[in-house]
Amino acid sequence: MKSQIQKLVTQALERIAATGIIPEDQIPQPVIERARDARFGDFACNVAMVLAKVARTRPRDLAEKLVAVLPKSELVEKVEIAGPGFINFYLSPTAYHSLIPHILEQGHDFGRSLLGGGRRVQVEFVSANPTGPLHVGHGRGAAYGAVVADLLQAVGFDVHREYYVNDAGRQMDILATSVWLRYLGLCDEELSFPSNGYRGDYVWDIAAALHREHGDGYRFSAQQVFAGLPADEPQGGDKESHIDALIGRARQLLGDNRYRFVFELALNTILDDIREDLELFGVHYDEWYSERSLTESGAVNRALERLRSAGHLYEKEGALWFRSTSFGDEKDRVIERENGQTTYFASDIAYHMDKLERGFDRVIDVWGADHHGYIPRVNAALEALGADPSKLDVLLVQFANLYRAGEKVQMSTRSGSFVTLRELRKEVGRDAARFFYVMRKCEQHLDFDLDLAKSQSSDNPVYYVQYAHARISSVLRQAAEKGLEVESDTGVANLGRLVENHELALLNRLSRYQEVVEASALNEEPHQLTHYLRELANDLHTYYNACQFLVDDRALRDARVKLVMAVQQVLRNGLNLLGVSAPERM
RNA sequence: GCCCCCGUAGCUCAGCUGGAUAGAGCGCACCCCUCCUAAGGGUGAAGUCACACGUUCGAAUCGUGUCGGGGGCGCCA
Question: Which residue is nearest to nucleotide B42 (CA to C1')?
Fold first, then answer.
């Protein structure tokens, strides 16, 4: 609709330009906006105000000239000039009525478009270390990333969803060692657990699996394990060197094969758990990309070589540094540690290089807000490698706080007593969790009210929207029970009967759906869609209360049924994009 | 010290990338079931858009500064 209005205005502008009032080479793309208020019609155009200066006339005078040459259209009922020089368009009821058959024909595809032109976009999200189960913070990134990906796909981008698996590096070694120490505990060895180790229950579970499978085959005495190690922090030592030494000891005592086994067991157990968790959350990936594969394929070395030959690396204090300050970072970064191990950053350089080499037109990373300091160095690396950093878009997701009975739920990773995504899903259900997570824009702190998410009342936006959908199903069931035929075309033929304010409000709302999906997608703002659905549900409930749908007047009844069927289709499409179910009954 | 995010109704937040009298939900105060789900609907009160300058026809929106809140700044990932 918007584009059709835009066409009319452009034609008018061309006609005006032909008379020399405005220069022909300065015809702008007129901006058509939704009227903020129904009294200003349906659409408004401010082009007269924008061009007043160039045309050297007052905005209102220019507006009048434009309106005088505006082509006639069936869509437009009347045009008015208002305020400082707005041109307001009032659409004819027909323009709206024709929307209903359009929605019903398009069905699931209504709202989708080809805006993206098939350009390839990668969305990488969650990518939590496989060192423990996903918690509620990851949940927000999961819901947000999944919806952004689905929205982009809906508007015509070719979307690739990816999870970057940090299956290499020191944190994984700490996990493997933690599992092994718990295993020793199960073997009745008395030992003090390192302060830097992973202490969640899941570590015990993996240890138990190891014990079931191998009995005492991996057992060493606590004495052997701890002999000669630097002290842990509580004993006045350094926790980092303590844990590093413990890792070394585990490798040495177990030998390569057995160490590898523990490592893989821990990794695979947790990764399987994460996969299942996300699957049950309705979050699907096209690819799980292994960090380790970057090292194994030589991609990390290749990236480092490229940086080295371009002269961006130097050695200092035994470590290898990347001169990221040359590209706007605030300090240089270590790429290879003194002990010869490459850092996470080194892998990340190779990874992002690889992303761009895979030919994506655009790469989106969804990160937790705590990683924001990381952006300049990744951009620096891309630039140093001669890649285009503008292709990379990092979306930072702020943390979510849970509230129960008005109290903030305390979460602590260190004690291992955090709330997992799985627990959240069990408590409030997948639908509510998915919806609540994306109700706020990502850079906004999210207060997640558990009680509200669980409540079955109109206060709960998810239920409110789902209920609108179910309510329409209920009406259709009623119609069937009464033996009323609603699938025929009489409804479409009689759409002119829809003249009530509530009906016009609904039609107007429906006409905005596509614009909302596009804006949500292009701005990466799923919350726009949640707000829209709530408003649409509200319009429906209001209408339901004010008007009986299944009236005796056949023509009117059929028209109303068609209208609510269209509403139901849009509710379903919107919920589907959010990963929320659209129930037939509640 | 430097960097990022936020500041709009009592509370939680929108405000469509600069438009017309700043909007929702909750909460509060009233009201509404002979009716397809009251798991609902309606009416009302409620605002110095943190503050100050600037940009222009026009600023909650853009810029600069100040104040306030949150988060981040490792040879961790």
Answer: A542
